[in-house]
Automatic annotation (TrEMBL):
This is Fic family protein. ATP binds at residues 279-286, 313-314. The keyword ATP-binding applies. One of its GO terms (molecular function) is DNA binding. PANTHER family: FIDO DOMAIN-CONTAINING PROTEIN, FIDO DOMAIN-CONTAINING PROTEIN DDB_G0283145. It comes from the Bacteria. It comes from Flavobacterium muglaense.
Amino acid sequence: MKTLLKAARETKALKTRELAQLTAIDQALISKFESGSRKPTKEQIIKLSSILEIDYETLMIAWLKEKILYEIGDEHFALKALKEAEEELNYIRIASPNQKISKELQLLLNEIDALKIKLDKFRQFDSFRIAQALELEYTFESNRIEGNTLTLRETDLVINEGLTISGKSMREHLEAINHQEAIAYIKQLIEKNNPLNEREVLSIHNLILRGIQPEDAGRYRQVQVMIKGSSYMPPQPYMVTKNMEDFYMWYETYKSKLHPIILAAEMHERLVTIHPFIDGNGRTSRLVMNLILLQHGYVIANIKGNYESRMQYYQSLETAQTQNNKEDFLLFIAQIEKESLERYIGIIAQ
């Protein structure tokens, strides 16, 4: 790996001092990386790969190889241990096919991780008013996806001024108020470090349908449903409880093994595919996704409710549901998160 780093830096005609400025990594550390006397962290690998334009997969393989060799050295049982580790890794890939990430998606994840590192430097400039404005936009867009006709300004008046908008239904008013309260609830879960489990998901859904369909709020459906405009047919009601048990088991198994963006997108897709509720599945799934993103220090992935964005969202979901191909959906969510990060940084870094 040390050869890769030095050759790439020299190819770009950069001095170690210049590379240090571009990556925000100490110059002495970069020299040690190139001499092999010090190993970079994964975050530093992401930065170096991006700035030096080294293929991420190539650099990661070299980095992992050196880590493995350093750890096992010339241990007598090293080869046998590696063989058993390979068998276990193969099992994990079979159990979770989405562990295999395309090059396009990996590059996008690298860009997102670089943005998150940048965001962390500006955390001190976070403010309640910025968060409040962005959460209001999220409520507006998430409800707009589901057909709510309140404008952003009207949503603000309903939530923050307690006004009633002439010509708008009571349901639309409640959808705005409920969604904003659901955001506050997931933030409380994060502050208290509460785990994501069945009780919390049902509580989120209960808030979404509170006062709208109280008999169905926070309860799994007991009837068959269809998704308007989609050829996908959700599971029969008698399968919902078992599917949800599998949903939580999957989360517990992979919550520490997947990239947070992939984990959040997977949980969104899996929940909305089970479609466990009579209504409010989309909003609940997006809130669960954003709960996971916020838990890991990312920002709310705000999917827009305009026609083009909504159609891309629905089509990528349907492809995942009917063709067992989640690539388009994972790319879609990753792109949304990247754009949300870029906007957030642009606001607080001014």
